[in-house]
Design a protein that fits this description.
The complex is a heteropentamer. By secondary structure, chain A is mainly alpha-helical. Helices cover about 70% and strands about 5% of the residues of chain A. Chain A has a two-stranded antiparallel ribbon with strand order 1-2. In chain A, a hairpin with a 6-residue loop joins β3 and β4. Chain B has a domain of about 240 residues. Chain B is built from 19 helices and 2 strands. In chain B, a hairpin with a 4-residue loop joins β1 and β2. The longest helix of chain B is centred in the last third of the chain and has 36 residues. Chain C is mainly α. Among the domains of chain C are: about 270 residues, no CATH class; about 55 residues. Chain C has 31 helices and 2 strands. In chain C, strands 1-2 form a two-stranded antiparallel ribbon. The radius of gyration of chain C is 34 Å and the shape is globular. Classes of the chains: A mainly alpha, B mainly alpha, C mainly alpha, D mainly alpha, E mainly alpha. The interface between D and E is large, with 91 and 71 residues.
Chain lengths: ~525, ~500, ~675, ~190, ~100
């Protein structure tokens, strides 16, 4: 299996892109063939990802495995360096698997204007970007993959998104949601990543002072970081800040979040799913992979601020959810709150907090992904997402309602389901943040976060009550509703199983991450 | 006379092609004039052959002739390659455009080739005189070509504006050069470099340097020397515009590179801040203005002003450092940017030509929903415009990346400030590039648009040109290593002696 | 510090097998996990195939519960004779380091005196309620779902009581909360019911914050979630817990307040009566609501040994609950609500006992209360089943039509009222004794007064329901045997359970209840009366009899008249009670609605009109700037400049002419001026 | 060198004799209200500069200037003026009504340049010394050698510039035939 | 004769040329002004040549190139002016405003 050791990850990254190319070899009219091409490539990718997980050495999860390092752009010392460790493995598997499910779901859910080939090609490109980001161990490579997701998502939202019109407050202009959301998403992310790139370059240059030669290599930079090479001066402060902007926009942290509700709401179902399940993780993952280990002193200095934004996000997101009238927008805002917990975990700068954020990311990916699937399917049937017009969904479509309720429960952090661990552990982390951080401050965050869990339960339950329970509205009395269909079952069942499995047996994730985050916290902060 | 015919071969082939075209134009009857196009394209392709033998042959790395007045080295070779390939693509794009109207084909290709010849001369020039003559050889034919659509008042106007500002810039350039020569007593770059170091504090020398820069600033459409560009771009025949925005602009940058790095490396304090200002102004004003354009050509004009600003950025980096590595990197970044820019901008213009053929308009709104009826064109359009925006994995990212790398390397506050300005501008630029993407892909086809497709917008030669550009944009975006490595060496060449 | 070091081995040693003089139990203790798993299996099975089964899945639920009852009974009996302790932990994940150790997440089960008692109560009452429900729910629209949810509840409850660590407890805790939510909202077509379900969930969620934060406070200190370690550390007065014991204890108590409906978090429980009656009987009377008491008992050493400062506060809350909230039962017309307030009040008794230091007393009341309160609820259910109404104003005179129900209900009521020698008397007496002994004399008197109130409202309920004339519709009949059999089965322990823990009395080899629940890894060190304190018992009895007498005096003679019910319409007091002390209103109008309404809207407004506006504004400004630069600067700038200059000198006439100036020259002018400025800037200035 | 010393040199009288008319002619070039006059004043100015070149021993350049400019370029100008039917001999306003901005810019350019020239003259030695080349005629052979040796490439390139200007100029300037005329022309 | 006097003369001519370029509205006259600027360049070149007095005579060669190129530019310019004139019957450049927006 030597080939697998060396080529496995590359295949995971580039198979989808190859699939996207292959799609164009299929005549436009042969939609089934196109679907099969997409399914096969993403399926194979997922199988490979699972195989990587199976062959992963969990005893050494703090080390990079399946590593490949090839010359790429020698002029600037950027290398094709990829690998997985315990931090990236769960996210990689999540990404690969959710993509297949998205393809399966797409099988008979197409938004107008119908263009199977184009849509699938974008999805496959997106997969390459997402998988690549999680395995990249070179800042330039990371940047490329990080940005690679932009275009496909931009087009997905812009072409197949929601054509509803909305009046923009203050400006007073009426915009078509998909167009507005697409460019907003694009601009926000690009704005952030422009600064992120500046940060990367600054690291690159400073690294030369210690190594003699500049490097973009993440492991090497981490090694420098563990010696606190970049110090805690203005330089490190600015670099961390620049990267913070880039990552925080992607997460998104309050107050950089406003692209998210619009993008999620406007995106086609699969787009929302991938956005929520994977794209949001790119930012928080980057904190763990890049910002913290390379600039630990700065991470410590920024931590209270990150924590503050995180808890503001938790409360703010939840309160905003309470005011929403659109199911999808509500779910979108819930991401702000949930990612707040993820970021709170990171802000504690402890192994527990990091672990919290990782399992929180995986859980949020599964749960919110499923929620968006459900919201999409419901919209597909009701042709509306107005909460006020829904109701009695449980009666019209018992299975759909049941899964919706289940997922909502998971989303509000019910213990025994995946969502709980992240919330609980990040609060636990906030109780005992890294030595040197203000205890009272983080414990205040902890209490606020805990209050946030109540608000989360509140909006989820009220949404559930208004959507699922009660008698169906009169307008639906003549409608024939099809309950969960076969492709929907196929796409959702793995998510449901995973949510329960991780809820009951979190070792599925923690088994990979714990050693890695303990090592991360130790090398970054000593002790 | 120590002529190295091998080294001169590209110029000679192009010159011969010019004569062949002239002969054919005279000899052929009107319906057969398309042979001139064929000859031109073929000639340029042939000219590329000696480039390859020079680059990969066993000969000396640097071939200097005529007492050092004319040098063929790696730097010159790569830029000549860009000019030849760029010119080749422009000729390909011209074929259908020129055929489709009543143009003087033979003369058109002759002038185009002459201009390309000029840029070849510039790349090898090592003194002010050759540089100046080369520049005029590039520009002179273009004044005429801009007015090539003779019946079109816009084209006439484009030509006249271009010409008047062009001669003004020539005058200012020459006035500057006269002082450069006068104060250093030398017209060669080497001589100026040696003598210039002592003249750092001389105000007149500063004037000389700055006036010379202004002359090139005109060519590279740096704000505030850009005013001609939008009007001329819009009025001139589109392939000519493509060439103006790429070939002629690249020639301007070659001039700047030679001047700054070869002739004036010892007085970075003079040109550095000036180019800092020009870069910042060009990026910012170019981008802000491009935001408000409804005509895709005009938008591209302003975008190319802004792109020119990006290309100028590394100069400012070189200017704040005395470290040869930094200066080399800056030079390399400019070259890389110019090359990538050439391909993606040519591609964009190719799309404009095809789109205009298809829709009969260059107004952005008339292109709405093009994806529905001309998907390939829409894909190409998105590709080139997003590459211009610098979105990975399209080649444009590497251009911007190299630029940022260069400007941040010195770690100087001014340089970093320029990097931040560039970063903000990169985001602003996305707005209007994305707008075209949006229009072509996400808007509804306007009422009454001809979607049945009577015109195939991607005819043979144009398709070939677009295909080459697209291939480059993708491959260079994913694997920039192939030439990035080459450029690192080139930068050493251009900055030797610093 | 010394004690921290000293206690470390103890903490590490705690866990797994039998300890001290406790046996590790036999096969049934080893396989006790079956009890925790079976109901979940039933849950899944019912969801998947329940619809297609003859009994619509009820048989699966009942069968699973039957097996559980068998297991629990064997353990229960075993524990009567010898103390058992067994703990099994399975690591389900580890994260981070605390107290120098990897903090492990574990699932498992603990078999000791406390958990065995709870297993059995849950299994016994649960089994009977399941059987009862099989009859009660016949013809319901969602029978499989009902039994699935019940199974989910049973499983979660057993996971809760079997939890060897806080994590598992939290899982079970929220699991029962979820089941409660599902079952309260069983008839979710009506908004009232789903409102009640949401209310229950959210109130509990508020309390859970306490549980979770309490866990978070205590766990890092120890580096483990295990109760055994917590108990051991508390028992050893470990410094590890020093700083957090009181705060942690209070937070855990706050969690318990929610689940066990202590003032002021009791508001959900009366509303929870929206669920089907068997649910009320099992969850909202016998088992689930006692989870808070159970938690206090499970972590008792913490309160007993270390967090002693917390205890007076807890007793105060509990006494307020038992007394003040008991009054609410006086004015309720809904029979189930009467019982619900009674439950709240009784939970107050239990909590008061445990908080005051009466580990056994509290648990003993929990034990007896489970029987008679389940009995009362099932009895009420039987009545409701017959008259199709919850309101006592639709009942009356049912003693003849429903004799079994009537007599068992009376037994339950007497037991609840604390009439000797029924179970309630003994357990309540022990609580009073404990309160007295621990120095809460004033609270003891309040508790005695509470007994009076209890007796009073139960008498009122019995009188209004079973005496007088029938005021409802149709002809009520006695319920079928499948429902009455559980009534009888519950009546038995309601009568005799008290005998198991009479101070100073023992029954041969069978140990006292005190010893049963005392089989823990560390001694509880609580107070047990050595003999019956007759004086105190007499006060309690007098209060009960007085309550019954007054209730009978007021309601029995003309139980059928409107007048009788109006007898309690005392000015000031009645509106206060009728509006539940306005606490619900305070929550809704003071907290929930402002958050849901104005605050949420404000945040949404901020999102659109502030944050997003900044972003959109930046975009608009950029676009405007673009227009400005293009329109004014790039295309007109020189005109404007000239106009501005000219305006000052030549007035409007000049402007017109100036505007016609040639464009090319403007460009050229800009060119020259630009070049000149560059020179000026970089030559003259520098 | 003081002004009196300077003015004492006869050659400077010659300089002034050419420079003053030259500047005056140049001013008329840009202010004359008659195009033809303007062109003729340019001839005068250029002739004066040719004179200066001779003073500076650059005879060849001087004659080139005379031949190329006065002989050819100005004639070209006059043709251009006639073809565009500019009102010959009639006085019209050839300038914009508002000229002060142009004047300001020009004065600015002059002020800055003048100041810098003076500054550099004091900085760099030799500016005030008599010009060494004066009186020594440059051998035309040197120029010729320069053209075919060191400056061969630009020399050839200029040829192409002229070729392009010629062909392009003709193409642009000539009147396009209508299709009918074209057909006729093709037949002939 | 000293260098400075030529340079000042050149500067004067150049400035006059600038003035003409900016103030003339007839295209041909604009071109005439440009010729003045180029004349200034030539004076500079020749004067500097005299100043350095090197054997290679770079300045003179430069000047000849300038003269030649200027001639070509005039040809080009006049062609363009003719073209514009043909379509508009006016040699005035201040009417070129088609592309103002």
């Amino acid at each position: 299996m030597a080939w697998f050791e060396s080529a496995g990850l590359s295949l995971i990254v580039f198979l989808p892109a190859a699939g996207a190319l292959a799609l164009f070899a299929v005549p436009k009219a042969r939609e089934d063939a196109q679907k099969w091409v997409a399914l096969l490539t993403t399926g194979l990718t997922a199988v490979l990802a699972v195989a990587v997980a199976a062959n992963f050495n969990y005893g050494g999860s703090e080390k990079f495995q399946f590593e490949v390092s090839q010359s790429w752009i020698p002029a600037i010392g950027a290398r094709y360096h990829i690998g997985v460790d315990g931090i990236s493995l769960p996210l990689l598997v999540l990404s690969a698997v959710v993509t297949v499910l998205a393809v399966i779901y797409s099988w008979d859910h197409w938004d107008e204007p119908r263009n199977v080939r184009g849509f699938l090609a974008l999805m496959l490109l997106l997969a390459t970007g997402m998988n690549g980001t999680f395995v990249a161990l070179d800042l330039v490579l990371f940047f490329i993959f990080f940005e690679l997701v932009l275009l496909p998502m931009y087009f997905m939202i812009g072409i197949w998104g929601d054509s509803a019109k909305r009046r923009i407050p203050v400006l007073g202009r009426t915009v078509t949601m998909r167009l507005y959301a697409a460019i907003k998403f694009f601009l926000f992310t690009l704005f952030g990543s422009a600064f992120m790139l500046l940060g990367f370059l600054a690291l690159y240059f400073r690294s030369g002072d210690f190594l003699g030669d500049n490097t973009f290599d993440i492991p090497t930079l981490i090694e420098l970081g563990s010696r606190n090479a970049f110090g805690s001066g203005t330089f490190a402060f600015l670099v961390f800040g620049a990267m913070f902007l880039g990552f925080a926009v992607k997460v998104p942290m309050w107050p950089f979040h406003t692209w998210l509700p619009d993008a999620h709401t406007a995106a086609p179902t699969v787009g929302s799913v991938l956005l929520a399940a994977i794209l949001l993780k790119l930012g928080s993952y980057a904190f763990l992979r890049i910002s913290i280990p390379i600039l630990p002193d700065m991470a410590r200095e920024w931590a209270p601020f990150i924590g503050l934004l995180a808890v503001i996000g938790i409360i703010y997101g939840s309160l905003a959810c309470l005011a929403q009238t659109d199911v999808k927008r509500l779910i979108a805002f819930s991401s702000v709150g949930h990612m707040g917990f993820v970021m709170l975990g990171i802000a504690t700068m402890t192994d527990v907090g990091f672990n919290a954020s990782l399992i929180g990311m995986v859980a949020h990916g599964l749960i919110t992904g499923l929620l968006f699937f459900l919201a999409g399917s419901m919209h597909h049937r009701y042709h509306t997402r107005e909460i006020a017009r829904l109701g009695g969904n449980q009666k019209l479509m018992p299975w759909m309602g049941g899964i919706f309720a289940f997922t909502a429960m998971a989303s509000l952090g019910l213990p025994g389901l995946a969502g709980f661990w992240g919330e609980f552990m990040s609060l636990l982390g906030a109780y005992r943040p890294l030595a040197g951080l203000s205890l009272s401050q983080f414990q205040t965050y902890m209490v606020i976060g805990a209050v946030g869990t109540v608000l989360t339960a509140g909006y989820m339950l009220w949404m559930l009550q208004r959507v699922n329970l009660g008698e169906p509205k009169a307008e639906w009395s003549d409608h024939e509703f099809h309950d969960v269909g076969p492709t929907e079952w196929l796409a959702w069942a793995p998510l449901i199983v995973a949510i329960v499995a991780i809820g009951v047996y979190p070792r599925i994730v923690l088994g990979a991450t714990t050693d890695a985050v303990v090592n991360l916290a130790r090398t970054a902060f000593g002790g | 006379m120590d002529l190295d015919y091998h080294a001169l071969a590209p110029e000679l082939v192009v010159a011969a092609t010019i004569l062949v075209v002239l002969g054919l134009d005279v000899a052929l009857p009107r319906p057969r004039k398309y042979w001139t196009a064929f000859a031109g394209v073929l000639g340029l392709a042939l000219a590329a052959v000696p480039l390859l033998t020079l680059a990969f042959g066993d000969g000396p790395e640097t071939r200097s002739m005529l007492g050092g007045a004319y040098v063929v080295d790696g730097f010159a070779l790569v830029l000549k390659a860009v000019f030849i390939v760029g010119g080749y693509l422009v000729l390909l794009m011209s074929v259908s455009y020129i055929e489709s109207d009543r143009y003087y084909q033979g003369e058109y290709y002759l002038l185009m080739l002459t201009s390309i010849l000029g840029s070849l001369v510039m790349a090898s020039s090592r003194d002010l005189i050759t540089l100046f003559v080369g520049l005029e050889l590039v520009t002179g034919p273009l004044f005429l070509l801009a007015g090539w659509r003779k019946g079109d008042a816009k084209s006439n106007e484009a030509s006249l504006k271009f010409f008047i500002l062009g001669v003004l810039s020539t005058a200012i350039l020459l006035y500057g050069m006269s002082f450069l020569y006068g104060l250093t007593g030398s017209v060669t770059f080497e001589g100026i470099r040696e003598a210039g170091a002592d003249l750092l504090d001389s105000g007149a020398f500063r004037l000389a340097v700055l006036f010379t820069l202004v002359g090139f600033g005109f060519k590279v459409t740096a704000v505030p020397f850009h005013f001609w560009a939008p009007d001329t771009y819009e009025g001139a025949p589109t392939p000519v515009t493509a060439y103006l925005s790429v070939g002629s602009k690249a020639a301007g940058f070659v001039g700047l590179l030679l001047l700054c790095y070869k002739a004036l490396p010892s007085v970075t304090e003079i040109w550095g801040p000036a180019l800092w200002v020009l870069a910042a102004l060009s990026m910012t004003l170019g981008n802000l203005t491009a935001l408000r354009q409804d005509n895709v050509v005009r938008m591209l004009a302003y975008s190319s002003i802004a792109q020119g600003g990006f290309i100028l950025v590394p100069f400012a980096a070189a200017a704040v450092s005395n470290d040869p590595a930094v200066i080399q990197e800056a030079a390399s970044a400019t070259i890389v940017y110019v090359i990538i820019y050439a391909f993606m901008n040519l591609g964009a213009f190719g799309v404009v030509i095809a789109g205009a053929r298809r829709t009969g308009s260059t107004m952005i709104d008339d292109w709405a929903g093009m994806w529905r009826y001309a998907p390939r064109l829409a894909v190409l359009g998105a590709m080139f415009f997003f590459s211009l925006a610098g979105i990975p994995p399209l080649a444009g990212w590497y251009a911007k990346f190299a630029m940022f790398l260069a400007i941040l390397r010195p770690g100087n506050a001014w340089a970093t400030a320029l990097a931040v300005i560039a970063a903000v501008n990169a985001v602003i630029a996305l707005v209007y590039y994305a707008r075209i993407g949006k229009t072509m892909w996400m808007d509804h086809v306007p009422e009454g648009a001809d979607t049945a497709g009577t015109v195939n917008p991607l005819t043979g030669s144009l398709a070939l040109a677009l295909g080459i550009s697209a291939l480059f944009v993708v491959v260079a975006g994913i694997l920039p290593f192939e030439f990035a490595g080459v450029f690192a060496d080139l930068a050493k060449v251009v900055t030797t002696g610093i | 510090m010394v004690s921290a070091v000293a206690s470390a081995p103890l903490i590490l040693a705690a866990g797994e097998g039998g300890a001290g003089d406790l046996s590790s139990g036999g096969f049934f203790a080893e396989t006790a996990w079956i009890m925790l798993v079976l109901p979940f299996a039933a849950f899944l099975a019912i969801i998947l195939v329940g619809k297609r089964m003859k009994g619509l899945g009820a048989e699966l639920a009942i069968g699973a519960m039957g097996v559980n009852l068998l297991w629990a009974s064997v353990l229960f009996v075993q524990n009567m004779f010898e103390g058992i302790y067994r703990e099994v932990n399975l690591t389900i994940g580890e994260f981070g380091t605390f107290a120098g150790r990897r903090l492990a997440l574990e699932l498992g089960f603990v078999v000791d005196g406390l958990s065995i008692m709870m297993y059995w109560v849950v299994a016994f009452v649960g089994f009977l309620v399941f059987v009862y429900a099989h009859g009660y729910m016949k013809g319901d629209i969602r029978v499989p779902w009902f039994f699935a949810s019940l199974s989910l509840f049973a499983g979660s409850m057993l996971v809760l009581v079997g939890a060897p660590n806080l994590i598992q407890l939290i899982i079970g805790w929220e699991g029962v909360g979820l089941a409660s939510y599902l079952l309260i909202g069983h008839y979710w077509e009506e908004k009232e019911n789903s409102d009640a379900a949401v209310k229950a969930f959210l109130t509990n969620k508020v309390a859970d914050v306490g549980l979770i934060l309490g866990t978070i406070l205590l766990v890092p200190a120890l580096g483990t979630f295990r109760f055994s370690a917590l108990s051991a550390a508390a028992d050893a007065h470990s410094d590890l817990l020093g700083g957090v014991a009181v705060a942690g204890a209070l937070l855990l108590f706050f969690g318990a307040m929610g689940k066990s409906a202590q003032f002021p978090l009791h508001v959900w429980l009366p509303d929870a009566m929206a669920g089907p009656t068997p649910v009320s009987a099992l969850m909202h009377a016998a088992t689930m609501v006692t989870a808070g008491i159970y938690l206090m008992a499970r972590t008792f050493p913490l309160y007993q040994q270390m967090a002693t400062e917390a205890r007076p506060w807890m007793v105060t809350i509990a006494v307020i609950t038992l007394f003040v909230l008991g009054f609410l039962a006086l004015v309720a017309d809904d029979l189930k609500r009467v019982l619900a307030y009674s439950t709240v009040s009784q939970l107050g008794y239990m909590m008061a006992a445990v908080a005051a230091g009466g580990y056994t007393a509290g648990l003993f009341h929990l034990f007896t209360h489970a029987f008679f309160k389940a009995l009362l609820f099932l009895g009420a259910g039987s009545v409701i089943h017959a008259v199709h109404s919850n309101n006592m104003s639709d009942m009356g005179g049912l003693r003849k039509e429903m004799p079994v129900t009537f007599w068992t209900f009376v037994v339950g009521s007497l037991s609840l009222a604390g009439v000797i020698p029924l179970a309630g008397f003994w357990s309540k007496d022990e609580i009073l004794a404990t309160l007295g002994h621990e120095g809460y004399t004033a609270f003891m008197w309040v508790a005695i007064l509470g007994a009076f109130v209890t007796a009073f409202y139960m008498t009122r309920a019995v009188a209004l329901t079973f005496f007088g004339t029938y005021k409802g519709h149709g002809h009520p009949h006695e319920s079928p045997p499948v429902m009455t059999a559980p009534l009888v089965a519950l009546a038995v322990p309601s009568v005799i359970a008290g005998l198991l823990n009479i101070p100073g009395v023992s029954w041969g080899p069978i140990r006292n209840f005190t010893d049963w629940v005392g089989a823990r890894i560390v001694p509880m060190g609580d107070y047990h009366p050595k003999a019956i304190e007759w004086e105190l018992a007499a006060y309690g009895l007098i209060a009960a009899v007085a309550g019954i007498a007054l209730g009978w005096r007021l309601f029995a003679p003309d139980a059928e008249t409107q007048q009788a019910r109006d007898r309690l319409r005392i000015p000031v007091l009645y509106p206060l009670l009728h509006n539940k002390y306005y606490i619900d209103d305070l929550y809704m109008k003071g907290v929930v609605n402002p958050i849901k309404g104005p605050l949420a809207r404000a945040v949404d407004w901020v999102n659109g009109y502030v944050i997003d506006a900044v972003i959109n504004g930046a975009g608009a400004v950029t676009a405007w700037l673009g227009g400005l630069v293009y329109g004014r600067l790039d295309q007109q700038g020189i005109d404007l400049l000239l106009n501005a200059a000219a305006g000052g000198t030549r007035g409007a006439g000049g402007k017109l002419r100036l505007l016609q100036s040639g464009k090319v020259q403007q460009y050229a002018g800009a060119f020259v001026v630009g070049a000149l400025l560059l020179v000026v800037a970089f030559v003259l200035v520098t | 060198m003081t002004f009196s010393e300077w003015i004492a040199e006869p050659v400077n009288w010659a300089f002034l004799a050419m420079a003053i008319p030259m500047v005056l002619a140049a001013l008329r070039v840009v202010t004359s209200r008659n195009v033809v006059h303007a062109a003729l004043f340019l001839v005068l100015a250029l002739a004066a500069s040719a004179g200066l070149f001779i003073l500076l021993s650059a005879e060849f350049v001087a004659w080139v200037l005379v031949l190329v400019y006065i002989g050819a370029v100005v004639v070209l100008f006059l043709f251009g003026i006639m073809i565009t039917r500019a009102p010959i001999g009639r006085e019209t306003n050839l300038s914009h009504d508002t000229r002060w901005p142009a004047a300001v810019a020009a004065l600015g350019v002059f002020a800055v340049t003048f100041w810098l020239i003076n500054a550099v003259a004091t900085q760099m030695g030799g500016f005030g010394d008599p010009l060494p080349a004066v009186g020594r005629a440059t051998a035309t052979g040197i120029l010729g050698e320069g053209f075919i040796n060191r400056y061969l490439i630009p020399f050839e390139a200029v040829g192409f510039v002229l070729l392009a200007a010629l062909i392009g100029g003709i193409t642009l300037a000539r009147k396009d035939l209508t299709p009918a005329e074209e057909e006729e022309g093709a037949r002939v | 004769m000293v260098l400075t006097q030529f340079l000042v003369l050149g500067a004067l001519l150049f400035s006059i040329g600038v003035y003409g370029l900016l103030s003339r509205r007839n295209a041909v006259t604009v071109l005439l002004a440009v010729e003045l600027m180029l004349a200034a360049v030539n004076i500079n070149l020749i004067a500097f040549e005299a100043f350095w007095n090197t054997a290679a005579a770079h300045g003179q060669i430069f000047a000849i190139f300038v003269i030649t190129i200027a001639a070509a530019e005039v040809g080009i310019g006049l062609a363009i002016i003719l073209l514009v004139f043909r379509n508009r019957a006016s040699g005035n450049i201040d009417q070129l405003d088609l592309m103002r927006w």
